[in-house]
Every structure is written in C-alpha cells, then in structure tokens.
C-alpha cells in the first residue's frame, strides 16, 4: 500500500517546473535560432547589394522599388515578435528557478544493508557473519561502553542485532532479498511534485476555478478557433470562398488581364488588415494615377478598375499589383507592406489555386498564361517587359539604350559576351557592375536535349495504345551545385545519348532503367528576384499539349528537383484515328522571364489493318513420321502412326 505526500518544501515542484519549462524553452530557442534570418535573404549574389543599394539610391536622390526584404526585416523582425517575447519570459523564469535550485541539497534515504552494518562483504558465509557479529557486540554492547556514549551504542547495537538476525534467519533473509528489508512488504511513500497548499481546503476554490478556466474556456476556445480556421481553408491553405470564386470565373480562352483581375479578387485581400480602408483612399488614388501614367508610357493597355470585381479591396490589390509590375514607387509605408503581402500571397494563390483548376480542366493556354503571371510576380515586370529588365539596377528605360547602342536584347545573349564587354556595357548604368555581371551569368538556361515517343515493346504506335514519352532536360546555371545522380540515372542518360530511336529494344531498355530511378531530395537554387520581398526557389513546369485544340495531353508537372539534368517518362493514350499528330512540349520557369523552352514532337499513329500479319505460331503437336522411333513404338503397341481418336487417350482396366 502506498502513501502519497505532497511537497512540503516546494523543492520537488521547482525541479518539476524547471524540467517542463526547459523542455519547451530550449528546443524552441534552437529552432528559432536555426531559422534565423534565412528567410530574409535571397541568393548569395543579392546579399551584397542588400547592404548598399538603398544607401546608394538615397544618396543620389533616385527612387528605387527594389524590395530586398529590407521592409520585411524592419517590420516583422523575429526579435520583436510575440514568439521571441514568450521565449524571453521563459528564459527569465528558467533562470529564476535555476538560481533557487542551485544551492539546494537533496537528501536521499540511505539503503539499509546488513552486510555494510556488520562490515563484511556481500555474500559472506555464516562463519564470517557470526565472527563479525561477536566482534561488534563486544564493542558496542551497552554494558561495555561508558555512560556518555551508551545511548548511541544502544542504537548501533540494535542495528547489529537486526543485521545478524536478517542474515542468519531464513525467513528474514528471504524477506530482505525480496523486499529490501527483513520485515517483508511495507507501505511505500510516494512524493507528488506539487506544493501542499494547492490541495488544502482554503485553496480548493482557486484550484477549481483554474481547472474551470482551462477546461471550460481556454481549451474549447483554442480548439474551436483551430477548427473554425481549418474549416475555412482548403488543404493548400487557400480560403474556400477564394477557390469557389476562382472555379466559377476561370475559363478558356481568357486574357491575362482578366486572370489578374480574378487573382486580385481573392478573399485573402478582402479580410484583416489587408482589406481596403477609407483612410487609404487618397494614397491609392495617387498611386493609381502613377500606374496609369506608367501604362501609357510603356504603350500598354490602359489601367482601369475591373468591371466585374467591383469591391474596393479588389481595386486596392490591383493597384498595388500593377505598381509592382510597372515598378512604381509606393511611398506609403503601410501600403508598401500590404503590397509585399499581396505579391507573395498571389504567387501562392496562382500556384496552388488557379493553376490547379486550369490543369484539372486540361487548359494548356490558360495554364501557360498563369505561369507567365507567376514570372511577372516574382521578377516585378509587366507582360511585355524584356528579359533584361530582371537585372538589378536596370530600369525599364535602360533597355532602349541596351538595344540601340549595343544591340543587346536578351539575358542569354548577354551571357555570351566577353567579361570585359559585359563590364563596359553595364558601367553605363547606376549600379554595381560586378553584381550586374554576376546576375547575368547566374540566370539559368534550359534545354530539351532528348524527346522520344514510342509504345514500349512495339515498333509502331496504333490507335488507343499507351504511348510513352521519354524526355531529358538540362539546365545550365553556374550557381547550381553538381547533382549526385542515382546510378540508374547515369546509366539511363548514357543509354539515351546513344539511343537509336528506330530500335524498340533499345527504347524499352532505357525505359526499364528509368523506372528504377529513385526520387531524389534535390532542391533547385533560389531564384534571383531583386523585386520580390520573399524567398522563392526556382522551379519548372512541364506541359505536353496539343496545339490544335490547346488542350493538355497530360496534367502539367511541377519539376522541383532540376539542378543540372533530369530524365523522366510520361505516358498517355494515343489518338483514336491513324495519322500524324503534332504535340508541343513546353518547359516553363515559374521564376524567370525569357528562360522557357518549347519543342514540337510528332507522333505517327498507324492503322492496324495496314500492318503485315504476324507470323502464326503452330502450337499443334506434329505426328510422328513412319520411320521415326515414336512410330515404331506406336506400331509395336498395335496403334497406327496416324492421328488417334479421343478413345486412344482413355484409360482402361482391361488387360
């Protein structure tokens, strides 16, 4: 039977509280430290001009729309966040508890050991036990000591007798070996690490009130809050009203401007602090005038309010989004923060919302436009901007100078220039020349190196057969780390490079190797996006479509592990009618403008009736010739060498 004692001194409760607090505080601190400012910085090339570009622009009196995440660092720094404050309180409490426990001595109850009392080794035999007992009895017997030490000698003598009895009496010794004492099983005292005052009568109302507060209010509140929040969102963390609106209003064909209007109508921009407020009207009107002037200066479609989505929050989101596209400075600090949120959220809404719906419908044109919108959001460019406009420090107006003076039109064209020529060209602009050259050299270049369509195991493609497309993609990017290929991937690439596309056996061999390639955890490099105030990895979309009807042949694939090379297969059903079909392969970047690649590939579907007949396989058992051994044996059994009747195979009991 056990007795329960509460903590009278509060020591064990402090130890308990210190341990529980440390379990939460220390791991949380480590996680927060590891995250650090990693999400605040982009590509290593951008880290350098994060420190200098704003200072340079201000010193020259030039406006700049480069985000560089500086506003995000100032406004939502981790050191002023609620999490940091809670961690700070936790460390203060941890320090106070640690200081109070530092000088506390915890007394443990000594284990009763009869061998130790008699001064002998464990497991000593009876002779040694009796000899030690006699020796100690003579020394500590109350009649043998002085009166001043008699009381203490009596205590020692009692323990000596008890130890002797324990080791010499069979019952007592058995109890000691089982329970640790010669008297058998005794009641135990269990300590509870709670102060005693918590369970005392005068404290019970407060304890019950605390229980009621936690169980009756706090717990239901947070559970309900979590449930309400989770029920409002899809599994991709998009509000349900937003997805409903997207599904109802997206269509094919549709213009890019209408897709942007639909994106700006998201419910995420009509709730919380992001929603339109009347105090922002004047600043938004001024910004709208600047956006309209910029659209006219670029010769683009005149900017105006959507005639379908009429809410003020949609108008606000559209103004801020086009200010991002046209690189119009947002002077209001609050609107600038809202613009950053809208741009970052729009990338997520486009990827996880609109593209998912368009892909499910099989719309190739709409999906392609949405990927172009993602490029515009990441790079902060309008739909007709030149790819060179992605470079840091380069304004829209600078592109005309590059085109007329240097005949320079694209990023990949600039990459082919000699290093000194690049420095000469970019020195004409107000920017860090080395950074601009490094940025040019770091833009990726995609190539579709191989594409083969075949029916595995067959030399031709027939109607309704399952065709397999084997494709190899290569990206050139100096910032990419060499990929550690799976052995099967290396073998497949080697076989594909020397593949004879007319040999179905070789195609099947390559296909079988590709199917054995295990998925990798490689991540593509971070996108160089000086006008985006968020981290963005550089991914690619693979789209196989029929250009005649602008329909996807297969759902678009997001490639998130393309570092240097990738080889993969896709399967689809061949058309129902014989003929030659043209398919379009698109590999689109979700981060860069002007890095996309496409290739046409033809598939010849053959009418099965025009194929030569397959050779018949004779599976009949040939009759033995008359001169063969089988014929002679048959004749010996009284059977003709010819083909026997059914009765020849029946068994009989007659002799």
Q: What brief labels describe this structure?
A:
five-stranded antiparallel β-sheet; Helix Hairpins; alpha+beta; 10 strands; three-stranded antiparallel β-sheet; 12% strand; 5 domains; 655 residues; disordered C terminus
What can be said about this structure in brief?
It contains 22 helices and 10 strands. The chain has helices at 11-35, 44-59, 70-75, 82-102, 114-118, 126-140, 150-168, 170-179, 204-232, 240-249, 256-264, 281-297, 312-326, 333-361, 364-379, 396-406, 411-415, 419-426, 433-442, 487-497, 504-514, 629-636, and strands spanning 2-7, 188-195, 445-454, 466-476, 540-546, 551-552, 557-559, 565-573, 579-589, 597-605. It is elongated.
Give an overview in words.
Keywords: Chaperone, Endoplasmic reticulum, Membrane, Protein transport, Transmembrane, Transmembrane helix, Transport. One of its GO terms (biological process) is SRP-dependent cotranslational protein targeting to membrane. This is J domain-containing protein. It is found in: Endoplasmic reticulum membrane. Residues 609-655 are annotated as: Disordered. The chain has 655 residues and is an alpha+beta fold. The protein has five domains: 2-102, no CATH class; 114-180, Orthogonal Bundle (Helix Hairpins), CATH 1.10.287.110; 200-232; 240-385, Orthogonal Bundle (Sec63 N-terminal domain-like fold); 445-610, Immunoglobulin-like, CATH 2.60.40. Helices cover 47% and strands 12% of the residues. It is built from 22 helices and ten strands. The chain has helices at residues 11-35, 44-59, 70-75, 82-102, 114-118, 126-140, 150-168, 170-179, 204-232, 240-249, 256-264, 281-297, 312-326, 333-361, 364-379, 396-406, 411-415, 419-426, 433-442, 487-497, 504-514, 629-636; strands at 2-7, 188-195, 445-454, 466-476, 540-546, 551-552, 557-559, 565-573, 579-589, 597-605. Strands 5, 6, 7, 9 and 10 form a five-stranded antiparallel sheet that branches. The radius of gyration is 42 Å and the shape is elongated. The chain starts with a strand and ends in a 19-residue tail after the last helix.
